[in-house]
Write a structure and sequence with these properties.
single chain, alpha+beta, two-stranded antiparallel ribbon, two-stranded antiparallel sheet, 4 strands, 26% helix, rod-shaped
């Protein structure tokens, strides 16, 4: 029984060593360019952060979101407290 356990232990260790030497198998990365990040702005009315490309401007030139619920809100205080 002890020899069987020793054999299984050696096989397990051998398998781990071979797996470590071969490295992880991953699919080839087709697109190696890093992801593009867009500048984000904070809506001056509701405070939601959104990409600059999705933001509109209010009469003062401050960024606002295009959500319907935002038009019902009053402008937020600029002070975070």
């Amino acid at each position: 029984m002890a020899r069987l356990l020793g054999l299984l232990l050696l096989l397990g260790l051998g398998w781990l060593v071979v797996r470590q030497l071969l490295g992880p198998r991953r699919a080839p990365d087709r697109d190696s360019t890093p992801p593009r990040f867009e500048k984000t702005v904070r809506c001056s009315r509701c405070g939601v952060h959104l990409p600059l490309t999705l933001a509109s401007e209010d009469a003062d030139g401050a960024p606002i979101c295009n959500d319907a619920h935002c038009s019902a809100h009053q402008p937020r205080d600029r002070d975070p407290r």
